[in-house]
Each structure stands twice: as structure tokens, then as C-alpha cells.
Amino acid sequence: MSDIVLETRNLGISFGGLKAVQDVNLKVKKNELYGLVGPNGAGKTTVFNMLTGVYQPTTGTFLLEGEELKGKSQEKINHKGIARTFQNIRLFNNMSVIRNVLVALHNQPGFRYTPFDAMLHTPKYYDCEVRMRDTAKELLDVFGLLEERNNLACNLSYGTQRRLEIARALATNPKLLLLDEPAAGMNPNETAELMEIVKLIRDKFDLTVLLIEHDMKFVSGLCDEVTVLNFGTTLAQGETNEALNDPEVIKAYIGG
Amino acid sequence: MTTLIDGLSLGAIYSLIALGYTMVYGIAKMLNFAHGDIIMVGAYTILTTLNITGNPYVAIAVSIVVCTVSGIVIERLAYKPLRGASPLAVLITAIGVSFFLQSIAQLIYGSKSQSISLPDFGKVSVGGLEINVNTIITLVVGGIIMAALTVFVKKTNTGRAMQAVSEDKGAALLMGVNVNRIIMITFAIGSALAAFASLFYLMQIPSITPTLGSMPGIKAFTAAVIGGIGSIPGAMLGGMLLGLIEKICLSIPAIGPYTTAIEFSLLIIILLVKPIGILGKKVREKV
């Protein structure tokens, strides 16, 4: 069972009397690209919010590589190895591209120095800063953002902002990357490019990816397995094309 | 000319205090109205240590430590439990903390004003001008501190994290930034700056009362708003501007008595014309 990266057990949350998500059981294997799909309001982003500590699950729990992370704070969960992007992009808009990535590198074990090092400009400070910049540049290079590194994040085009968000999430050195509608608002070319990037980073960074997406072409072209949510419950689960062609799933999407 | 230098030196004091307001506002999104009273805490600490040790330099060092620690303690005990509460509740708490500090000081030291004798370095004449050495020290040290702070925010991990928290706290958390720690550091830096401000303030007006921090506190807050609250260069600019205006007004006998009214009118005018302050929002360096 050691190749399971993320496992959720009966994960659920209620807001007041409303059961927004209930009994979600995911088993995401190492290096897998796993899709979480479903109609609007199905609770997909809510699942992400639970997995990153934004919401506390009311029932069930989740484990990353066998370690229970439920109840940990958001930054602890991030340190343990879950990073995410957002459905509506949330970059640090008034900061440069490279600075966005540097913030995410900030708490990495290799790059830690105390405020005293910084105040006195010790060799440790210079060493860390130089290595951080190198790491950030490498990462930006993967996403084709190296040229843009001194531009402000808010001045980038939409698709580029999405790429930067993924780069920033990767900078926290995650084991599991959660992508919330990465292809939203992208044109077909950009979407195709994005698919390549997701595959590339999976291999390059030894990642496991859990993603939410409405673009079914994107999901079926990329994901090994999917879970379909509807009204907060699991509708279908399993190998991508099988699950997506499940009559129940088709009914949920087109009604009837 | 002397007025100008006096004004800049007073401005440096206001800037140092205003930085505390603006950084805390930028990062914790709260107005820390107890910030002015940290100056009072610093002043009494200098007084007490000076009486015990007789060494002004020890007194200054102790005051910096005491201010920094009280800033951290106040944040932990009073503000941290209110994280996520309505801004009004936080604001009222801050005012409560302010009264609390003033009352404590009154209990310990009484309400009478106490005088303090800091070393006076006399005057030097530069190009025919007689200038207080204390004024020059204020200006130079204040400038160095502000430059160091700017570099700190621009070039270090913690500075970057501070900027990220002020931009989007939620996203910063999810990128692994320890927001509570950053807020604590912000309070610590702000309070340490207030300790310097209290020293410089005492060098100009060497008497201490429990409400000593109120007026410079409110004026520095005004300076922060004029400069654009949340913006570090804004606080520096606003502080300098207010210091200059104050000294220039005081030097003209006809309008001298109305100095304070003029300063606060300026605030109202700025709020009417450009509510975000001179450097608010538009400036990229925002903490």
C-alpha cells in the first residue's frame, strides 16, 4: 500500500445543516494524474479546501503517504507536501514573477536563515539568497517564464498567470499537487500546451497530481483515473473513460 | 534653514512611528491604536534604566528590548485571539490596550510629568548655522533605520513573506508562509522602531507623562494615512511632510498657534482629494 500518496476516508463537511460533501473516498497512487470532475456546485473545490486545511472536515480524514494531516494548519499541510493552485487565480499581483516564486521557496529547509543573518548580511544569507534565485530561475525556465521574471504578476496574460501559479505551487516542493481548473479560460492551444506541462512536471518533479477540470477532453486526455462528484457525493469512480461514460454521470451532466 | 532641518528631524520621528502603523495595517489589516503608547513605554523604560544604571546607552538598549517584547506580548494576548474577528472589535481592543498601558504607567509612575536628562551634545555650526547635534543624530540614525528597513523588506525571505501576506494572506498561508510568525515579526519591528522614536522624542522634549504617546501617535497615524496607509515609502514621506509642516507653521508667529489644526486639516484635504494617500496602492512596495 506504500504507493498510495493520498488517501481520503469518508471525507465530508457540513455547513450548518447542509452536507456539502460526504463520504469521499479517494486513493491516489504515486505519480498518477487523478481527476476530480462533476457539475458546478458538486463540491470539488470544497474537497481541495479540506485537503489544504482551509476547511476542517466534519467527518472522515485524509492521509498523505500514510500520515494523517487532518486538523493541521494550512502552512503545516503545505510543508508536509500538498500544494495547490486556485480556481480564480490568486497570485501576489503587485510582486514580480520571480518574487512570487521566492515567497514560496521561503520556508524550504535548505533556504532557511534567521532575520539576524539577514540583518547582518552573513555569508549564510548571501549563500541562501543566491541558491534561492537559482532554484527560482530553473523553475521559471520549465514554465517558459524566465524572460518575464522581472515583470509584475498582474501584467501577465491570463494563461501565463496560470503557469506562474503552478510554478509557485511547485516551489514549495510538494509531493501532491492540487490543480483547481488549470485550463479554465484557456484557448485550445494553451490547453494542449498545459497538458504537456502537467505531464512534464509529473515526470520531472516526481509528482502526483490531483486536478479539477470541466474540460472533458483535457481530463480524458490526461487523467489515469477520475472520481465524479455530484451534489457532494461520489457518483462514479475508476478508470477515466469508463467512469466518464457511466450512464449516471452522463445523466448528471446533461440532466434528465 | 534651521527650521527645515528641525522639521526633517521631527519628521524622522513621525516616520518611525508611522512605519509601525503602516506595517501592522498592511499585514494584519488592523489599526493598532496602542502603537503610540509603545513610545510611552519606551520613554519610561529609558527613564527607569537611566535612574538605575546612569548609562544612557544601556537605557536605550533596554528600551528597545522592552518595546519589542511588549509589542509581541500585546499582539499575542490581545490581538491574536481576535484574528478573523470584525475590524471594529479589533479596533476597540486596540483602544482598550492603549488605555490599559496608560493606566499601568499612571499606577507605577503617577500622572505628574517627570523630567529626564539625556546627554546633550550641544550645538555645532555648519556653514554659519547653529544646529543641535541631537537633531542631526535623529535625522541620521532615523534615515539609516529607514534605509535598513527598506532593504530588509526588499531583499530578505521575511520581507518577501511580509509582502506576500499583505497581498493575499490566504494564498500566502497555502504557499507555506507561517502567517502568525510574520505578524509577530511585524509587531516586533514596529515596536522596536517606536523605541527609537521615543528616544529621539525625549531628546527634543525631555519630559514624560503617561499620555506622552498619544499626540505623536495620532500625528504619526495621520502621517501614515497622508502617505498612503499600508505603504512603507508612504509612511516615510508622510512623516517627513508632517514634520516639516509642523516646524514651518510653528516658525511663523501668525499661524503658529494653529499648527495642529493645520496638520489635521491636511489629513482631511488628502482624504477628500486622494483617499488612498499620496503613495497608496499605486506604489508597488506594499507591506
Per-chain topology:
The complex is a heterodimer of chains A (about 260) and B (about 290).
Chain A: E1 4-15, E2 18-24, E3 27-29, E4 33-37, H1 44-51, E5 59-64, E6 67-68, H2 74-80, E7 82-84, H3 97-105, H4 115-120, H5 123-142, H6 158-171, E8 176-180, H7 188-204, E9 208-212, H8 216-222, E10 225-230, E11 233-239, H9 240-244, H10 247-254
Parallel strand pairs in A: 4-9, 4-10, 7-8, 8-9
Antiparallel strand pairs in A: 1-2, 1-3, 1-5, 5-6, 10-11
Chain B: H1 2-28, H2 35-53, H3 56-79, H4 87-109, E1 114-115, E2 123-126, E3 129-132, H5 133-155, H6 157-167, H7 169-174, H8 179-204, E4 207-208, H9 214-227, H10 232-251, H11 259-273
Antiparallel strand pairs in B: 1-4, 2-3
Q: Outline of this structure?
A:
The complex is a heterodimer of chains A (256) and B (287). Chain A is an alpha/beta fold and 256 residues long. Helices cover 39% and strands 24% of the residues of chain A.
Would you mind describing this structure in some detail?
The complex is a heterodimer of chains A (256) and B (287). Chain A has 10 helices and 11 strands. With 256 residues, chain A is α/β, with parallel strands linked by helices. In chain A, 39% of the residues lie in helices and 24% in strands. The N and C termini of chain A lie far apart (40 Å). The radius of gyration of chain A is 19 Å and the shape is globular. Chain B is mainly alpha-helical and 287 residues long. Chain B has a single domain, classed as ABC transporter involved in vitamin B12 uptake, BtuC. Chain B contains 11 helices and 4 strands. A two-stranded antiparallel ribbon of chain B has the order 1-4. In chain B, strands 2-3 form a two-stranded antiparallel ribbon. In chain B, α1 packs across α9 and α10 runs antiparallel to α11. At the A-B interface, α2, α3, α4, α5 and α6 of A face α5, α6 and α7 of B.
